[in-house]
Amino acid sequence: MLTSNRHPTLAMRARRWLRRALPVLLLCGATAHAAPVPATLEADFAAGLKDEGLAGAVWSEVLPDGKVRTGAAGLRDVAAKASMQADTRVQVGSVAKVMLALGVLRLISEDRLTLDTPVQQVLPELALRNPWLASDPVRIRHLLAHTAGLDNVRLWQAFSGKPQPDTPLAEAFDGSGLLRVRTRPGTRYAYSNMGYGVLGMVIERVTGQPYERYLDAQLLQPLGMADSTFGFVTQMSTQTGAQRDARLAMGHVEHGVAQAAVPQYLRPAGQFTTTAADMARLAQFLLGDGKLKGAQFIDLALMGALSEPAGTDAAQAGLETGHGLALAVRDRHNVVGACHPGTTAGFRAMLCIYPEQGSAFFVAFNTDGEGADYERFNRLLLRDLDVPLRAPAPRGTPAPTVENWQGVYVPSPSAMASMAWVDAVFGFTRLKWDGESLFLIPFQGEPKELEPVGGFLFRASDRSTPSHVLMQEEGRHVLSDGLRSYERASMLRMLVLWGSLALGVAGLLYVLLVGVYRAARRSLGRADHLFAPVLSLLGLLLPLPFLYFQSFLRLGDVTIASVLLALATGALPLAMAFGLARCWRSRGTAAEYGTLAKWDWVALLAALQLLLVLAWWGLLPLRLWHL
């Protein structure tokens, strides 16, 4: 494990934060002065929404002089042709984590918790599987900074029609192995919605009331965010306990399809309804010193740690980018700030603050579109705020052993534990050193050139500060950008994985094409080696129409589509094994099919090995729901 004395103490960070925040201290707790939005920004937003196929947007800007600008463009509801207004309420997805983190920091400031409180001290019944428990328990700071090593989310936790607005938070963890710690707590960043679900439970245990009620009264009310709530709010609902709000913009997905809000299992990680003006008030507080009306609301040292990574191996190795207690350092367009994005059904959002300039912006869209360029609007807001550009870090002398880090790297930990095989096979990147620059060559995506800035630190061409660091941990070579870590994999292991995939796909294609060919010639009898395997492959088509007509929000439920998918994928290895068994029994009469019978053997064996590998990695049978 790496050690370093580079990391500042909380007090040092607090003093640095205070110096940055001096221009905006008077803003905290004060009523924002509204200013008109420049017509060019509204026009640019309107044009951008049209180009990107988005319904509408609301935004707010905090200016260094204390003024706040809010604006809106596009449609609040596409079907009703209702225009988006500056005071329209929106949902912000994971931006809710910033507010939830502030709620936890408020409890710490009141001495009801500490950053180093072990989670299982507060929730002893929680089934945390931590191999490092004796030396490194999961602490509150780890959950806040996404360094607990927990998995992100399971499909049924994110997409299900079962949860109600008041479903107990513990039901999100009703299953063995869900809270397995995959890396030593505190060492690596791994984004975790589950972790923030646990934080919601911590708040409830400490305060003795639902976290929504506590935070609405003890956080939002003091901040003056009267138009915001952690409670469940929807556009149309017949569910018990749901708040229906006509001011809430309708969410939309691809092609403008409307999507009303639904309850979530992990609601502390992404359930929050607000307005652009309220988010400006939040931004003003984040830019300040933690005081409200002259009294310390959140400890100054905690404010200084909101966006500064602490304790991770990457931070100790000198990388300043990463996630703090509530926000992540964001280096884009030669501008460095502290930001948090958010996505939920039908909505996208972004909150960014720039302490050195005393400015901030918030923007939310009521469309969750996969192909849209949301970064385009961030650039517009940065332009409008006139945030000064930062000069890129100068080129430095790389460590002489950099070439030893060349090789193939895989995500570690993977974004989702259930998708570890997919990440290893398709999410790998190659690291190449040409003597002057380091090149990241991902399997999916554009190559990236990294310029050395000294030692093992490197800077991407679109960043102004060091963006990557090379490390050696317990004999393993690691590449990190502060928010993602990759470990070098042995070439033998990767060749085995790639070879298994190539052989398996070739075998499955052979079985399908040759089987269909024989069926077309009416020679595919029940006694044929490929009869059962071909049927099992064609069986994969059965769930498709049900999946197409089923709401994506029910992917994690037991439905006709999910049951058929589990049965079809579970039958695949059994059918291949059955075909191989028939090949073995009929080996004495193989002349009936000539040399093709030998290829049947090879194809079935190749397909079966891949299916067994997928089963070993937990991908077969493909069961989307939770038992």
Explained architecture:
Strand 8 and strand 9 (258-259) form a beta hairpin. The radius of gyration is 27 Å and the shape is globular. Strands 1, 2, 3, 4, 13, 14, 15 and 16 form an eight-stranded mixed β-sheet that branches. It has an eight-stranded antiparallel β-barrel with strand order 17-18-19-20-21-22-23-24. The protein has a two-stranded antiparallel ribbon with strand order 5-10. The chain is of the alpha+beta class. It has three domains: 10-330 and 337-384, 3-Layer(aba) Sandwich (Beta-lactamase), CATH 3.40.710.10; 402-489, no CATH class; 499-616, no CATH class. 34% of the residues lie in helices and 18% in strands.
Number of domains: 3
Weakly predicted, low-confidence segments: 1-33
Radius of gyration, Cα only, in angstroms?
Answer: 27 Å
Q: Into which percent range does the helicity of residues fall? A: 25-40%
Q: Per CATH, which architecture of the largest domain?
A: 3-Layer(aba) Sandwich
Total count of helical runs of at least 4 residues: 18
What's the name of the CATH homologous superfamily of the largest domain? DD-peptidase/beta-lactamase superfamily
Question: Could you describe the largest sheet, including whether it forms a barrel?
Answer: 8 strands, mixed
- End-to-end Cα distance, whole Å, is 38 Å
Strand content: 15-25%
Number of strands: 24
What class do helices, strands and sheet pairing give? alpha+beta
Overall pLDDT level: 91
Return the CATH class of the largest domain.
Alpha Beta
Shape: globular
CATH topology of the largest domain: Beta-lactamase
